[in-house]
Sequence to fold (93 residues):
Amino acid sequence: MSDPVRTVLAHSPELMVVRFAFKAGDRGALHSHPHVQSTYVRSGRYRFTMDGREFEVGPSDAFVIPSGAEHGCLCLEEGELIDSFTPRRDDFL
Fold:
């Protein structure tokens, strides 16, 4: 198990787009942040936890994570997530 590989694709002060490449078994640790996040599943399968609720997603699924919501995921099948953050996550630069 390892951390996903993060690649910043585009950013401005108001918006950031990031690709996360996961291998099966990789985890996105539970965390929260003040940014609103939109996640698009480009490929793979994932089990997400958001504010104590679990759900699974696969290719072409998308959802929004509100500001301050605790969330994380487990990669079930290798793939990529495309995340957008508003405002930009300066900690990713």
The radius of gyration is 12 Å. The CA atoms of residues 37 and 72 lie 12 Å apart. The chain has one domain: 5-92.
